[in-house]
């Protein structure tokens, strides 16, 4: 196949390619999984309302949405990676490193303070690209590669911070007030999360790059056969995830105020939980960033309800881990059904 044909195939995604890569069954499975998540959320609301009278109030609903906003943005970045059939366990370390380094540099150079978002994006792109390089070029399994960079990035920010903090007074004024602002009755973070999720969702569904991510995640071998560059797709997904994680780090830092080297430590489990609970297939190629964002709302609802009931942190982690296992188990069953249906269709086609 010529280079011109490769490029045309990769950028235009001709009709029928998605079906030949097995995405039709995955889309149907996604709809079923998402309906199940919505039903589960409704059950949570009913149960927590019955046992915790303070749960169903406007103030508490705002608290849930505020908590879910940070998680939803981070889940949007993780979705890009998971759709390729990979994982990014370094998201929390990227958040912490980006927030600390960018705010520390900006505090020492006031002229840079208006540009903190661009600085964070640059840091996130570099860190994400390194993750993608390890996975796509060096071909280290993603869970191993990003588990290693989780420690590398966290170790770097610990060395850089040297047991010091960036205090809230050193943050740019506009970023300090962002976490407390409300727009049209909702926290600014909720609107920012909604905007970022919509942009990522549009990119995945409407841009050639997004369609290539789905095609590659559905069937990497077939995607390669049709001329899609696997390394470019995987590295691009990690770059996008890194950039988004860096922005989330800024928002979380503004919310916390005093930033140390442990910022966002341990958030990886929550982000992954939001993605898989929201119906994104851990095997790639199927899922939606909107589902991942909704998964963040589900997690925030669970945590909020358990806090109102006075449940200890240990048991909240237990419920969260059980939710991940259950979501992955359901996803595995759905994938087996999709593959079985695909095999039957191919057999009937051959017989016909």
TrEMBL record:
<feature type="transmembrane region" description="Helical">
    <location>
        <begin position="90"/>
        <end position="109"/>
    </location>
</feature>
<dbReference type="InterPro" id="IPR001851">
    <property type="entry name" value="ABC_transp_permease"/>
</dbReference>
<dbReference type="GO" id="GO:0022857">
    <property type="term" value="F:transmembrane transporter activity"/>
</dbReference>
<feature type="transmembrane region" description="Helical">
    <location>
        <begin position="262"/>
        <end position="283"/>
    </location>
</feature>
<keyword id="KW-0997">Cell inner membrane</keyword>
<feature type="transmembrane region" description="Helical">
    <location>
        <begin position="115"/>
        <end position="136"/>
    </location>
</feature>
<feature type="transmembrane region" description="Helical">
    <location>
        <begin position="64"/>
        <end position="83"/>
    </location>
</feature>
<keyword id="KW-0472">Membrane</keyword>
<feature type="transmembrane region" description="Helical">
    <location>
        <begin position="183"/>
        <end position="204"/>
    </location>
</feature>
<keyword id="KW-1003">Cell membrane</keyword>
<feature type="transmembrane region" description="Helical">
    <location>
        <begin position="30"/>
        <end position="52"/>
    </location>
</feature>
<keyword id="KW-0813">Transport</keyword>
<feature type="transmembrane region" description="Helical">
    <location>
        <begin position="290"/>
        <end position="311"/>
    </location>
</feature>
<dbReference type="GO" id="GO:0005886">
    <property type="term" value="C:plasma membrane"/>
</dbReference>
<keyword id="KW-0812">Transmembrane</keyword>
<comment type="subunit">
    <text>The complex is composed of two ATP-binding proteins (LsrA), two transmembrane proteins (LsrC and LsrD) and a solute-binding protein (LsrB).</text>
</comment>
<protein>
    <recommendedName>
        <fullName>Autoinducer 2 import system permease protein LsrC</fullName>
    </recommendedName>
</protein>
<comment type="function">
    <text>Part of the ABC transporter complex LsrABCD involved in autoinducer 2 (AI-2) import. Probably responsible for the translocation of the substrate across the membrane.</text>
</comment>
<dbReference type="Pfam" id="PF02653">
    <property type="entry name" value="BPD_transp_2"/>
</dbReference>
<feature type="transmembrane region" description="Helical">
    <location>
        <begin position="233"/>
        <end position="256"/>
    </location>
</feature>
<keyword id="KW-1133">Transmembrane helix</keyword>
